[in-house]
Model the fold of this input.
Amino acid sequence: MRRAPAVLAFAFAALVAACQSPPAPGWPEITFAHRTPIRLDVARVEVVQIYRPPQAAPNVEHLFPITPAAVLRRWAKERLKAAGTSRTARVTIVNAAVIETKLPTHKGLQGLFYSDQAQRYDATLEVRIDILDDGGRALGHVRTVAERSRTVTEGISLNERSRVWFELTEAVVRDFDTEMERTIRRYLADFVLPGPTSKWRTDPRVRAARASATGVRWQWAGSAS
Done:
């Protein structure tokens, strides 16, 4: 009989453990280290975040395992390389919001026979890159917006919802990365340096010929507005 309290205590502990949610998963890093950096003819790259998360509904990005804004800051650090001797590339995070929208679902007895999509998450990333001379004058700029959406079903667990949020962040940032690189190479071509062994980088005459052939001027018409 003396063992009864111990047995009951063990049974109670096992019951509590069974009722608890599974441990939160560890999320991998969203990194760009495997991507070749974009070498810019600037002396420095600075990041400015003007987007301020509201920290309240309908915004939910502050609840994410890894916030979109944090991934964008990492993107700037790993994808943009200052390889020049003057000028600044200013990366401005304009938007990094994720909005939750509740979707209509079946109610009452009908709800027992349906597994509805209950919420939609709309992610929007907007980043602007300005090239500034050493006096702060704008020489050119590009802007990219990437958007993605995901829906989740009723009754989804916290861990499952976090997984959806992580996958949404990863997908929209990959979209952004692809489009921003394409935009930089197209509209800021005269500020992009090739590899260190390229003659175009070391011979000003080759650089001038390239600019003339492509119709790109040093202060191309993409000057900041």
The first strand starts at residue 38 and ends at 40. Residues 158-187 form the longest helix (30 residues). The mean pLDDT is 81. The two ends are 84 Å apart (CA to CA).
